[in-house]
Amino acid sequence: MKNPSLIKNEGKIKMQYFLDTYAIIEIVMGNENYREYIFDNEQAICTIFNLMETHFYFLKNFGPIKADEVYSSVKPIVIDIDDSLIKDANALKLKHLRSRMSFADCIGYLTALRFNAKFITGDYAFKGMENVEFIK
Prior knowledge:
By secondary structure, the chain is of the alpha/beta class.
């Protein structure tokens, strides 16, 4: 799995972005508002937990063939995380218990902060938070 950092492309530095589960689903479903946030192995990142939630969504709603297809297309952007992110994510979830943030998205949000990647979501629980690009 890759180690996220700023990417150099033809002498220019491109900012990475973190796709939460909501964003991944919207991209796959063809939401035009997410067009610029594709599964670009050079820029997009997510965690195995977002991949897991995404696979479950497509398994439940579209069956195993579509779920496995989406899994395979998202897998290349999955990055490793460490134990400190999991512990910090639990503290974030506890702090925002009423907002119903998923564990996966709490881990993702903190991963985005750690790696200076914009957190891309349409989840209202994150609307207005630092480093969030909220898209419907």
